[in-house]
Amino acid sequence: MNGARPSSNATPTFRILASAALLTALCAGEGAFAATALSFSSTNGSFLDGTSRMLGWRFEVTADSDVTELGWQDFGQDGLAVAHEVGLWTSAGVLLGSAVVPAGTAGILDGFFRYVALQTSIRLSPGTSYVIAGFDPGAGDPHVWDANIGFGAQVNDFSVDDGVLLGAAGTAIGTVSGSFQFPTSSIGDARRVEMGPNFKFGPTPVPLPASLPMLLAGLGTIVLRRRRAR
User: Fold this and answer.
1) Per-residue pLDDT tens for 143-166?
2) pTM of full prediction above 0.70
């Protein structure tokens, strides 16, 4: 056949541009996937006694991570009766960020928790102990926990994401409190978590190479010149 063969002049440039675009997407989007710290499949009951408390748990992370959403447990998966403020602190009591999970169904339901997105993500690092806790006014929204202590409020198929390390038994938080504040005491029995609060997180995004914008600009110039030369 005498048909003209398509020009391959643009092929190397296209491959370079495609590779650069892929690198940009990987670096910028690595933190886009959000994992859930805690999850469970069902409950055996719940607990609500009218006492206002700070509920939560202690943990560490296995790698640099960014918390992107904070949440509160919705026992009936049908909306929260009241709003709950949730915070994340260092173990020394430094508040790193907080959010209010609103009453009703405004928070995004995922499993047994409703979440709100943080305006600014919270950076976590391995080797540091953290506390997540939220204010429970003691009315409207029952809570649950991870261990069977005789109340029938433990959950089934309790799971912790691989990126999260929970505190030991007895480190769950249930501090009696009249307002949102850093909790100073643990429950002390077999429980590790009071839910209460939860969070979503992902790996810390990899910074783009400083030279990448210049590289893309240079490649764009090459493509433009080749098109003009045709």
Assistant:
1) 999 998 888 889 999 999 999 999
2) yes
Place of tokens 């501090």: 175
The predicted-structure confidence for 7-17, as pLDDT tens digits, reads as follows 444 455 555 55
Amino acid at 143: H
Judge contact between 115 and 108, C-beta under 8 A.
Answer: yes
Give the pair of three-digit tokens for residue 154.
Answer: 């433990």
Given a contact cutoff of 8 angstroms between Cβ atoms, the answer to whether 57 and 194 are in contact is yes
Residue 175 CB partners (closer than 8 Å, separation 6+): 53, 54, 133, 183, 184, 185
Structural domains of the chain in order of their starting residue, each with its CATH number: 35-203 (2.60.120)
Both tokens assigned to 45: 């009951």
Rg (CA), the chain: 24
Average pLDDT, the chain: 84
* 196 cis-preceded (ω within 30 degrees of 0): yes
Residue with tokens 């997180």: 201
Q: Say if CB 129 and CB 78 are below 8 A apart.
A: no
Burial 133-166 (b: 16+ CB within 10 A, else e): bbbbbbeebbbbbbbeeeeebbbeebebbebbeb
